[in-house]
Fold this protein.
Amino acid sequence: MITNGFTYVAVLIFLAAILVLLEKKTGWKFFKFIPAVVLLYLISMLLCTLKVWDMESTKPAYSALKNSLTYAMVFTMLLRCDIRKVIKLGPKMLIGFFSASVTIVIGFVISFAVMKGFIGNDAWMGLGALCGSWLGGSGNMVAVQAALNISEADMGYALVIDSIDYSIWVMFLLWAITLAPKFNKWTKADTRALDEVSSRLEEDAKFNTKPIDFQSMILLIGTAFLVSAIGQNVGAFLNGALPFLDKATWTVLFITVLGLIGAVSPLGKVAGSAEVSNLLLYVVIALLASRASLLELGDAPAWILTGFLILAIHMVLMLLLAKLLKIDMFTAAVASLANIGGTASAPVLAGSYSGSLVPVGILMALMGYVIGTPLGILTAHLMQMIA
């Protein structure tokens, strides 16, 4: 049994490294259904269940690292989202994206009201974390977890839904995109603006491609860690001055603002922010899972059903809005997956529609990073009101 905090962290990071290496180098189809980040969570939970490390002895290392690395991750994640580029998407695609976001929030609130008798009145916390993920990405999920101090057990349920329900939703949308001509005729959508927006974004990308080097990596890591440290102090101060939000929530919101400011500064053009944020994300995911036992997932089927109910409500409302607002299939489908799947899958769906539209999928997904954390926290509190 591992009792040393450093050894405990080293094993988790090494596990993450091996899984990422296998995913990138082997080409196994297995990883298409269970990505490395999900497998990392499940294996870490399994090791916790088998008591590979002592929970009490390793707790100080976990407590010292988890939130601090989460805040650093949120900052570097947001450096990629330049608001000036978001505006170039145009009103129709922005309306489509936020329509998906709002319908997802509604789906969470209604589903919790229906299913709380089966998943428990306290399930609003785990669903709040999941909402952060389904509005932005895994990074937003752990940011909401940090802000609301959600238990590792509830996070385990959130990740189970995020894996199973999300995978089926991706397959459904990849199939649905084949119905685009009929769908666009039904909604009477005008698709001429899509190629124009995509070409502008591709031109921007050509001029902003820079190599990742040692200087850029150490600058990003150093800045992210400093922002995390300052953010926690500011969060404590704001909590004392304005106590209607707790310290963690203030910290996350403050760092989100700093990340958006950094994105439009020269720091936003430094190469490597995606790599640094992914590195931090994998470490945080491993840490979270290392405190959750598989024995605590007895109610997983009810949670999985709740996830499908959320997606069903989201789909019905999106169909109604698409008809009302004349939204085309590409915008509706990619907006949905940009929220629920993030940067990992939205570009894939966009590319299956047209290779020239991949930048639109990427930019929509990056928008989710901005709204995922604050809206996830808001949705959690809305569900808490009806608990």
The radius of gyration is 20 Å.
